[in-house]
Amino acid sequence: MVEQERYRHLRFERPHPGVLEIVISRPERLNALDLEGHREITYVWEDVAHDDTVRAVLVTGEGRAFSAGGDFTMVEAIIDDPEVGRRALREAGDLVRNLIECPQPIVSAINGPAVGAGLAVALLADISIAARSARIVDGHTTLGVAAGDHSVVVWPLLCGVAKAKLHLLTNRPLDGEEAERIGLVSMVVDDDQLMTTAREIAFQLADGNPSALQWTKRTLNHWLRMAFPAFDASLAYEFLGFRTPEAREGLAAAREKRRPRFDG
Q: Which pLDDT tens digit goes with each residue over 139-170?
């Protein structure tokens, strides 16, 4: 059962029978995830999966962003503390698998920046709806580590290998319109229509036949499960990168709002 008292960085609402609305709630930091928030966004999907009152999920971010990814303190802790790194590695793998295995259909409403682990939630949702002003960027290679998280699992399937390489290697950002044009998201809408549209779809899903929807999702997600070996490799390379000087330079550059200088 999803219980609010167990979560600090996620807020839950019930706007319609059978619909759970999950709001990533750290608006003063553009909903960036610290270590606690990363753990919450990873394991909330297990609670959802075992909550028989939930037939559909809508996930979004509070305020001006969906989620700016992991915050600087979290990245620094991963770099400095091997035990934190091991925990984050496990959670990064669990986040992707928990989203894929969550039986209820998930709708994401992507508002503003969506980066890193937040982007994993946005794009692994079964139906992703982006505002025109959304700003989607993976961010890993700019930080100095390999693109891990969700990217190897879902980007090539959604938009093709050529576009996946373009955006994952260069970290060129996409707005909502471009993301829809290349097939990375399901739909783009005007900013002021984002939540209305996302709720309409979530309500429709909640009113549908749960077995039909869940079994359809489960079978379609076998396409994602086939990428698990590549996903494990990408996570290993990502967290190996956190042990290198390049990750420290990437973090310093992000904090100082400059381009990183990678000499290795």
A: 999 999 999 889 999 999 999 999 999 999 99
Residue 30 burial class via C-beta count within 10 angstroms: exposed 0-12, middle 13-18, buried 19 and up: buried
- Domain definitions of the chain by residue range: 4-193+205-216
Whether domain 4-193+205-216 has CATH 3.90.226.10: the reply is: yes
